[in-house]
């Protein structure tokens, strides 16, 4: 199964694609989408929607997973993150993909063993779990981490269903 992981942000949305075959995971591609930093919010969100749609068309994932919104101290930042996440989820939905959603702490715990792991720890574990991975940015490695988390949870659910 080809899985697209997404780490939404209005500044830099990370995306990562992995292949999951049984318990084997392999790196396919990753990148970072940087919508225009200035301009009206509808245009910025539209650019994010279009870029995620292009990634989906190019990579042809069979499943998607997205990081959930976390609360910031600044309510405006949380609102903007939610809007970016909405644009990302709309692109996934427009492509006809289901999208699992995971809390950031769960993703970190699934990869590193602790929910308060630093981004650099997540990045290092992604590189260890996906030999040859070249995430480039912490946003891209976070997206790959979301995809890995989804692959592992989906595999566990399949085992339980067949038991």
Automatic annotation (TrEMBL):
UniProt entry keywords in alphabetical sequence: Cytoplasm, DNA damage, DNA recombination, DNA repair, DNA-binding, Endonuclease, Hydrolase, Magnesium, Metal-binding, Nuclease
Gene: ruvC
EC number(s) recorded for this UniProt protein: 3.1.21.10
Assembly notes: Homodimer which binds Holliday junction (HJ) DNA. The HJ becomes 2-fold symmetrical on binding to RuvC with unstacked arms; it has a different conformation from HJ DNA in complex with RuvA. In the full resolvosome a probable DNA-RuvA(4)-RuvB(12)-RuvC(2) complex forms which resolves the HJ.
NCBIfam families for the chain: ruvC
Transmembrane segments: none
InterPro entries: RNaseH-like_sf, RNaseH_sf, X-over_junc_endoDNase_Mg_BS, X-over_junc_endoDNase_RuvC
Catalytic activity: Endonucleolytic cleavage at a junction such as a reciprocal single-stranded crossover between two homologous DNA duplexes (Holliday junction)
Alphabetized Gene3D superfamilies for the sequence: Ribonuclease H-like superfamily/Ribonuclease H
PROSITE patterns for this protein: RUVC
Essential cofactor(s): Mg(2+)
Pfam families: RuvC
Residues that bind Mg(2+) 2: 67
Entry protein name: Crossover junction endodeoxyribonuclease RuvC
GO biological process: DNA recombination; DNA repair; SOS response
Location in the cell: Cytoplasm
CDD domains: RuvC (cd16962)
Name of the top EC class for this enzyme: hydrolase
GO CC terms in record: cytoplasm; Holliday junction resolvase complex
Annotated binding of Mg(2+) 1, by residue: 7, 139
Free-text comment on the cofactor: Binds 2 Mg(2+) ion per subunit.
Biological role: The RuvA-RuvB-RuvC complex processes Holliday junction (HJ) DNA during genetic recombination and DNA repair. Endonuclease that resolves HJ intermediates. Cleaves cruciform DNA by making single-stranded nicks across the HJ at symmetrical positions within the homologous arms, yielding a 5'-phosphate and a 3'-hydroxyl group; requires a central core of homology in the junction. The consensus cleavage sequence is 5'-(A/T)TT(C/G)-3'. Cleavage occurs on the 3'-side of the TT dinucleotide at the point of strand exchange.
Gene Ontology MF terms in the entry: crossover junction DNA endonuclease activity; DNA binding; magnesium ion binding
Family in the record: Belongs to the RuvC family.
Source organism superkingdom: Bacteria
Lineage: Bacteria, Pseudomonadati, Pseudomonadota, Alphaproteobacteria, Sphingomonadales
Active-site residues, Swiss-Prot/TrEMBL: 7, 67, 139
């Amino acid at each position: 199964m080809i899985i697209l992981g997404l780490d939404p942000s209005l500044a830099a949305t990370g995306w990562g694609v992995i292949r999951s075959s049984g318990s084997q995971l392999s790196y396919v591609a990753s990148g970072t989408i940087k919508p225009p930093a200035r301009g009206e919010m509808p245009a910025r969100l539209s650019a994010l929607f279009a870029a995620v749609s292009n990634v989906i068309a190019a990579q042809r994932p069979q499943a998607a997973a997205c990081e959930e919104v976390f609360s910031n101290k600044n309510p405006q930042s949380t609102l903007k993150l939610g809007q970016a996440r909405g644009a990302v989820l709309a692109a996934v939905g427009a492509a006809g993909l289901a999208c699992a959603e995971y809390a950031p702490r769960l993703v970190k715990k699934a990869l590193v063993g602790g929910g308060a792991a630093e981004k650099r720890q997540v990045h290092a574990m992604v590189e260890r779990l996906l030999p040859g991975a070249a995430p480039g940015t912490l946003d891209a490695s976070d997206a790959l981490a979301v995809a890995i988390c989804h692959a592992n949870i989906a595999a566990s659910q399949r085992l339980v269903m067949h038991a």
